């Protein structure tokens, strides 16, 4: 027998069968109950009844959990094969993709060039003092080092660091920490959810998330996805809930899996927004009675799809890196080992991180442990041979020409 949504059973059968199936699910040995409750949503308003959030750990859900864990191991193994100097630039490429996706989901405009510039100068206080998205890029950069939530003030702190500068004045929090008034979520045509109110209730519900994360015995990935849903259900701010909520779940995922898996969630969601929004809405459906099973499957499928995109990207990059290694070893027009090393490094960076994260001359000095004079001399020869071209004057950065790269992979 297929495991269907309770809402589907309600419409296919009758209310008695529907209630019987619900009782069977929530009280089964394979069921996990949470300490979290919601008021279902119907006809553009919250119902008065409360439902306890629960899920049944069916086979498909267990397999998805296993798949995500396996993907994480595959990613970590592939990353271990990257050249040391390419690891952080590769991670930065993923950060930029994720941050741009997180913004796009909410209709916030940002370019990869803009985000790359912020990330590049993240430790330069003068250069980034008034930069847009500074807090977001810092948070992603240290995603695996974020502390677990300890108090409701931490939710406000995350909001202030991530999105406060991007929110219009009329949508800024007007309560002690969060919003003082009600808020509606729409899909452009109709209201799909109404946030919890008043602020005292928001604070109570956010404290429930903290307690749930710190004490529940539910398997971790399920727990993190449930906390994400509950945060979006509460909707503590007028604007910025999606971006803060997704980054929140990413910070917890990074501690269970790896930092690469963690920062692919928004990218995957952006590629299938209808699935994500439908997953959230289905939990609140009156006839689903707080069941999270299908929501968890959808979220793990999205996470897995993001992981698979990283795996494919890494495997392709490693295959190209092997071709580059063979090309450099067969190079017959020079005996200059430093020139070969510089060429090898910049080609590898191009493959794994793209032109936006090429090493500057100063960084090449650090990586190779030679003088700036020697690097400048090598670059002058490569430029004369039309192998590289000047990309930026300050800091001085050269890029490999397209024609040269194409010649390697013919």
Automatic annotation (TrEMBL):
<protein>
    <submittedName>
        <fullName>Fic family protein</fullName>
    </submittedName>
</protein>
<dbReference type="InterPro" id="IPR003812">
    <property type="entry name" value="Fido"/>
</dbReference>
<dbReference type="InterPro" id="IPR036597">
    <property type="entry name" value="Fido-like_dom_sf"/>
</dbReference>
<feature type="domain" description="Fido">
    <location>
        <begin position="150"/>
        <end position="298"/>
    </location>
</feature>
<dbReference type="Pfam" id="PF02661">
    <property type="entry name" value="Fic"/>
</dbReference>
<dbReference type="InterPro" id="IPR040198">
    <property type="entry name" value="Fido_containing"/>
</dbReference>
């Amino acid at each position: 027998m297929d495991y269907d949504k309770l809402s589907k059973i309600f419409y296919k059968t009758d209310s008695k069968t529907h209630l019987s199936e619900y009782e069977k699910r929530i009280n089964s040995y394979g069921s996990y109950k949470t300490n979290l409750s919601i008021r279902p949503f119907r006809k553009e308003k919250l119902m008065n009844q409360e439902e306890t959030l629960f899920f049944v750990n069916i086979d498909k859900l267990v397999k998805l959990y296993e798949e995500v864990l396996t993907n994480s191991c595959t990613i970590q193994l592939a990353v271990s094969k990257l050249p040391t100097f390419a690891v952080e630039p590769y991670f930065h490429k993923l950060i930029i993709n994720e941050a741009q996706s997180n913004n796009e989901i909410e209709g916030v405009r940002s370019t990869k060039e803009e985000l790359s510039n912020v990330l590049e100068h993240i430790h330069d206080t003068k250069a980034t003092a008034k930069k847009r998205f500074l807090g977001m890029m810092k948070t992603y950069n240290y995603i695996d080092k974020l502390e677990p939530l300890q108090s409701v003030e931490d939710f406000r702190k995350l909001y202030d660091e991530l999105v406060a500068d991007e929110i219009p004045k009329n949508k800024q929090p007007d309560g002690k920490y969060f919003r003082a008034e009600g808020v509606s979520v729409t899909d452009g045509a109709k209201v799909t959810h109404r946030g919890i109110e008043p602020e005292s209730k928001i604070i109570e519900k956010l404290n429930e998330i903290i307690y749930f994360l710190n004490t529940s015995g539910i398997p971790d990935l399920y727990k993190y996805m449930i906390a994400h849903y509950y945060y979006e259900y509460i909707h503590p701010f007028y604007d910025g809930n999606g971006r803060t909520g997704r980054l929140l779940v990413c910070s917890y995922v990074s501690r269970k899996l790896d930092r690469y898996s963690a920062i692919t969630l928004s990218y995957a969601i952006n590629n299938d927004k209808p699935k994500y929004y439908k997953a959230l809405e289905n939990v609140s459906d009156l006839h689903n009675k707080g069941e999270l099973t299908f929501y968890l499957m959808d979220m793990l499928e999205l996470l897995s799809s993001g992981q698979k995109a990283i795996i494919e990207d890494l495997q392709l990059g490693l295959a190209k890196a092997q071709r580059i290694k063979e090309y450099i070893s067969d190079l017959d027009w020079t005996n200059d080992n430093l020139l070969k090393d510089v060429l090898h490094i910049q080609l590898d960076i191009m493959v794994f991180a793209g032109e936006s994260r090429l090493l500057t001359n100063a960084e090449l000095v650090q990586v190779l442990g030679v003088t700036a004079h020697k690097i400048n001399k090598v670059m002058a020869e490569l430029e004369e041979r039309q192998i590289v071209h000047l990309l930026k004057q300050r800091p001085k950065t050269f890029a490999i020409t397209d024609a040269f790269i194409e010649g390697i992979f013919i």
